[in-house]
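User: Hi! I have a protein structure encoded as tokens and I'd like to know what sequence might fold into it. I'm fairly new to this, so please keep things simple.
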């Protein structure tokens, strides 16, 4: 299958074929929608659990972006029955889509609110839920003047299930019914560490992993690392840029500083280099297992940060800059439990990293707190599974 905008646009207009046996197959259809990569990844474990618990149901996964579609096919083609794009939210197209897919129950993950799609689902008695629901502060400011409109739209939904009390309050303000609005927790916490097949020799030292860095953050990371290295000679740095197209720029920064480095693609070792650049695809999430401390990029450059749970799932204390609005509620939990630390500047970064490297008891408490965070949030996945159990025919259940 091709993954490009042209295919996306054509498919979103309703020009796609459901499997040939679909119309004659009377098994109930459970549909999930995740807009892009983050939502699809958050849904992955739920989809696998749905397949396990409801082996006789048909499962459909839709996305709204090309990258989301690509990751859906890569990760879940062996789990779901059909993957396609979510339809454009206009009358003829939505009707055509629902005629082809014919879902019994629909789960919309995260932030997507679809006025016409939800109204047709209500008219057709298709149960439609928002799960893992959240509304960012910036979106909420935009939505507030139009609460009269959103109240009508949200009334189409069978249930609104949110990530946090804050998100719950926002949906209620916009007009969602209190009887069907509830905090379910965050599916992103219902994860397990990926199977590890990563081999990297730490050279007898401790690794600071700077993951998903953006332009302007590399200098901060290298400044902090050089200061830490003077106090902690065993410290190594594994640097992973968010975009590999920036690799030459990062090399130039290191060369100008006179810092030697190796490349992961060359299988260079920390026995030879104190700094290694992770210039390979698909390894970062597993590399956190090798780290001692993790810095999560996108947080010193107004990007909004990246998912700190990729590191915390390995019980690795997390440090981030001040801009974490993409994962505000997750960071709130991490900082409350002292499993993660949000700092305002380079000096703050240095000070907390130095404390983690210097104080073994402090480090141990922070690492153990990562597990406490996941234990406290566990249950969102089972929440959704229980909704399905109440919604689909008995014969489709195990």
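Assistant: Happy to help. Inverse folding works backwards from shape to sequence: for each of the 398 positions I chose a residue that suits the local structure. Here it is:
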């Amino acid at each position: 299958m091709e993954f490009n905008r042209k295919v996306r646009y054509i498919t979103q207009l309703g020009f796609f074929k459901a499997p040939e046996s679909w119309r004659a197959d009377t098994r109930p259809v459970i549909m999930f929608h995740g807009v892009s990569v983050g939502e699809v990844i958050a849904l992955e474990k739920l989809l696998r659990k749905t397949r396990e618990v409801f082996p006789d149901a048909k499962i459909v996964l839709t996305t709204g972006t090309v990258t989301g579609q690509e990751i859906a096919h890569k990760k879940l083609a062996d789990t779901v029955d059909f993957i396609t794009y979510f339809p454009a939210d206009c009358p003829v197209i939505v009707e055509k889509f629902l005629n082809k897919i014919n879902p019994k129950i629909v789960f919309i993950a995260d932030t997507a609110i679809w006025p016409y799609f939800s109204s047709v689902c209500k008219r057709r008695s298709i149960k439609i839920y928002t799960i893992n629901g959240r509304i960012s502060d910036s979106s909420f400011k935009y939505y507030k003047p139009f609460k009269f409109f959103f109240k009508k739209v949200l009334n189409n939904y069978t249930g609104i299930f949110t990530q946090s009390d804050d998100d719950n309050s926002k949906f209620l303000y916009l007009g969602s019914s209190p009887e069907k609005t509830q905090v379910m927790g965050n599916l992103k916490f219902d994860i397990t560490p990926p199977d590890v097949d990563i081999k990297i020799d730490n050279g007898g030292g401790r690794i600071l992993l700077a993951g998903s860095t953006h332009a302007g953050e590399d200098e901060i990371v290298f400044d902090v690392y050089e200061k830490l290295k003077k106090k902690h000679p065993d410290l190594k740095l594994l640097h992973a840029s968010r975009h590999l197209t920036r690799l030459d720029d990062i090399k130039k920064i290191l060369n100008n500083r006179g810092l030697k480095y190796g490349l992961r693609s060359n299988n260079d070792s920390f026995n030879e280099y104190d700094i290694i650049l992770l210039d390979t695809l698909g390894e970062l999430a597993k590399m956190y297992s090798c780290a001692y401390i993790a810095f999560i990029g996108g947080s010193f450059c107004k990007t909004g940060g990246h998912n700190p749970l990729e590191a915390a799932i390995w019980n690795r204390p997390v440090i981030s800059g001040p801009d974490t609005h993409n994962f505000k509620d997750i960071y709130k939990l991490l900082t409350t439990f002292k499993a993660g630390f949000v700092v305002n500047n380079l000096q703050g970064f240095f000070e907390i990293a130095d404390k983690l490297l210097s104080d073994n008891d402090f480090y141990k408490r922070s690492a153990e707190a990562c597990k406490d965070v996941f234990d406290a949030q566990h249950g969102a996945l089972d929440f959704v599974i229980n909704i399905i159990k109440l919604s689909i025919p008995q014969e489709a259940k195990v």
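A useful reference point when you look it over: Confidence is low (pLDDT under 50) at residues 394-398. Feel free to ask if any position seems puzzling.
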